[in-house]
Specification:
mainly alpha; MetI-like fold; 2 domains; about 0% strand; globular
Length: about 550
């Protein structure tokens, strides 16, 4: 074994140990609490938390399946005026963090807010008691808000499957006399089952990770209980024990997702032929299709973003920009950029491990890289406390300055971000490298290039669009991440998300509108670039959108 290859194995082992360390640390932290904590948790904390979490996940799952699959079928199977614009707009809720949407709707639907005030004015009513509306601070309200924000996780893979694989089969079904509904129920929906299961699993992971929206809306999920137990009660062992229960939920979700897919896939050619299967809609049918497709965009993005823009404009016009807004924006962009760079480099190396070290090592490391995304942010933060403290003390022993990666440092936050979203960049890099014909790196090896040199000078330039897509997705996720930022941010450092959380906790919604709008704008820039990359890729292949 060469020295470079041996060094690669050492690095892979160190990364695998770091990826697995939060789970081990959770078990050790939970054991420090003693047996007396479990009866208290079982009697007073876990029953409500497990019930609320289970109901929330079930409701969000049903809603994202309906919205995501329906929207994907609408833009894939039908052609109508505005379809291309709608196809892109359906991705906009990806830029909206769940806690920002909850924040906006709480202000919008407050009894003294613009919606209820306007309705009472139209109806000639004076008192809020004369027009009782359903309370948004409830489990159904939380399910609705999360569903309208997270449906793109189902929409994206289902749309891709319909566009790339379903055209011939759908055309055959129609030639045999099947109508639109029968074609959808008997052909398209079973065909999309793996994509729907994958997207639903990702959406439920995001719902389980949420702490801001659930807390704002009064839903006591397991994630909220972990945060409250650690921060409000200063009980780390108790938080670790609740986090272990959450890990059980995560394992169950992953098992359900794989069971729903059932190992199924679809074999077909690589020709993208769905455009020929679209049915042209005209008149009222075209208007109805556009209205149905625009509804998720309106509720998941346009309405909250428009309200935030209006409130921010009014706040800035009356009181000027908040003093700390510039530093909070800089902190958000700085930490997201640094963490994205680290995550992309590590993700590319992990994705290239099968080529650099062998298929078996690559598969093991790629699976380990997915652990961070599977763990909610609060669970990951609790699990990282012990490993980060050990790493910090080890660095101090070898002469490196202390407080480099320990609790309350920027290094700890970057590491947590990298572990949490590593699978995003790994998946994108893996997909980009897989598209390169094997003959190209083999030829470079025959000409004397090393594996690492081949990766950096040949494979990476060819795979850069996929790597860039992973970087943009990671940046969006990191910039709007709340649980990890709340628990591991450096002392006296505020980001836009933590500032917004504080304003919402105090009920001063108008003071947080500008920060909320900036979070949306920061998320919109990478989403717009992603749409441009996707459109350019389609045009290069000479295919119709």
């Amino acid at each position: 074994m060469s020295a470079a290859r041996g060094l690669g194995w050492v690095g892979a082992a160190a990364l695998a140990a770091l990826l697995l360390s939060p789970v081990i640390s959770l078990g050790l932290s939970a054991s420090e609490g003693g047996g007396e904590l479990w009866p208290h948790l079982a009697a007073y904390v876990l029953p409500q938390a497990i019930r609320d979490t289970a109901l929330l996940l079930a409701g969000v799952g049903l809603l994202v399946i309906g919205l995501g699959t329906g929207a994907a079928w609408l833009v894939s199977a039908f052609d109508f005026p505005g379809r291309r614009l709608l196809d892109a707009a359906l991705l906009l809720p990806l830029a909206m963090p769940t806690y920002v949407v909850a924040y906006a709707y709480l202000d919008l639907m407050h009894p003294l807010g613009p919606l209820q005030t306007g309705l009472r004015g139209l109806l000639g009513l004076a008192s809020p008691r004369d027009l009782p509306l359903p309370d948004l601070r409830s489990l159904p309200g939380c399910i609705g808000l999360l569903g309208f924000v997270l449906y793109p996780y189902v929409y994206l893979p289902t749309r891709a499957l319909f566009l790339m694989r379903a055209g011939t089969l759908l055309e055959a079904a129609r030639m045999l006399g099947a109508g639109p509904w029968r074609t959808f129920l008997r052909v398209a929906l079973p065909l999309a089952r793996p994509a729907v299961a994958l997207g639903t699993g990702l959406a439920l992971m995001e719902a389980l990770n949420d702490v801001g929206a659930a807390e704002f809306l009064g839903v006591r999920t397991l994630t909220v209980q972990v945060y409250a137990t650690w921060v409000n009660r200063s009980d780390l062992p108790g938080a670790a024990q609740i986090a272990l229960v959450m890990l059980t939920c995560v394992v169950a979700l992953v098992g359900l997702e794989r069971l729903a897919r059932g190992g199924r896939g679809y074999a077909g050619n690589a020709r993208r032929d769905a455009a020929s299967a679209r049915r042209r809609l005209n008149g009222w049918r075209a208007g109805a299709a556009l209205a149905l497709g625009a509804a998720p965009v309106a509720f998941g993005f346009l309405l909250p973003a428009g309200h935030l823009a209006f409130e921010a404009w009014r706040r800035i016009g009356g009181h000027g920009l908040p003093d700390a807004l510039a530093s909070q924006t800089l902190n958000t962009i700085l930490y997201a950029s640094v963490a994205t760079g680290v995550t992309v480099v590590i993700g590319l190396l992990v994705a290239a491990t099968p080529y650099l070290l062998g298929a078996r090592a690559g598969r093991m490391l790629i699976r380990a890289a997915g652990l961070g995304y599977a763990m909610p942010g609060t669970v990951l933060a609790v699990g990282l406390l012990g490993p980060l403290a050990l790493l910090d003390s080890g660095l101090f022993e070898v002469g490196i300055a202390t407080a480099l990666v320990g609790l309350g440092t920027g290094g700890a936050l970057v590491i947590a971000y990298a572990l949490r979203f590593l699978t995003v960049t790994v998946g994108a890099s893996e997909a980009g490298l897989a598209r390169i014909p094997r003959a190209i790196p083999d030829a470079a090896r025959v000409l004397g290039r090393s594996r690492l040199a081949t990766l950096t000078t040949i494979q990476l330039p060819l795979a850069w669009p996929a790597v860039l897509s992973g970087a943009l997705l990671a940046f969006v996720d990191i910039a709007k991440e709340l649980p990890v930022t709340l628990l591991l941010r450096p002392l006296n450092v505020e980001t836009l998300s933590t500032h917004l959380y504080g304003e919402a906790a105090r009920g001063t919604y108008e003071d947080g509108a500008a920060a909320a709008l900036l979070i949306v704008v920061i998320g919109l820039v990478p989403v717009t670039l992603l749409l441009r990359l996707d459109r350019d890729a389609v045009l290069r292949r000479g295919e119709r959108l």
